[in-house]
Structure of Putative acetyltransferase:
Amino acid sequence: MNIAIEDPAQADIITLLEHGDAEAARLYPAESNHLLPIDALREPSVLFHVARDASGTALATGAVVLKGDWAEIKRMWVEPQARGQGLSKTILAKLEQQARAHGVRWLRLETGVDSHSALGLYARAGFVAREPFADYRPDPLSVFMEKDLSMETTA
């Protein structure tokens, strides 16, 4: 598996993002979905990662949005056929590595209360619950988490 920073505006990546959007729409109402659109994912402050298999097929995405001493994880998605192989853990570790390389101390995220696999992944990786941050408002369908990257050197 190869994980690299790529332009999210590629057709195969857009398809993956659409799959993630559809799952989010299935689980949560629009006002509880906080998905970054393609143009925002192409900003210089966003490190958008794509995982591809040996044949070059895009199977997963994840992004770090740099905000100074903190960053936000966005657009974590693994295609259903690629799940169960540790790919989300590998991508998360790569995102943490990139955040550290850019001087980030606090890595934050928002996910949904019914996104059980994501919640488990983040908890196992050392993320803890916190209050809403940045422009987020309290939402009973959202879980806000953060990890202090200064506390350890590996994901």
Observations:
- Residues 2-151 form a domain with the Aminopeptidase fold (CATH 3.40.630.30).
- The chain has a mean pLDDT of 94.
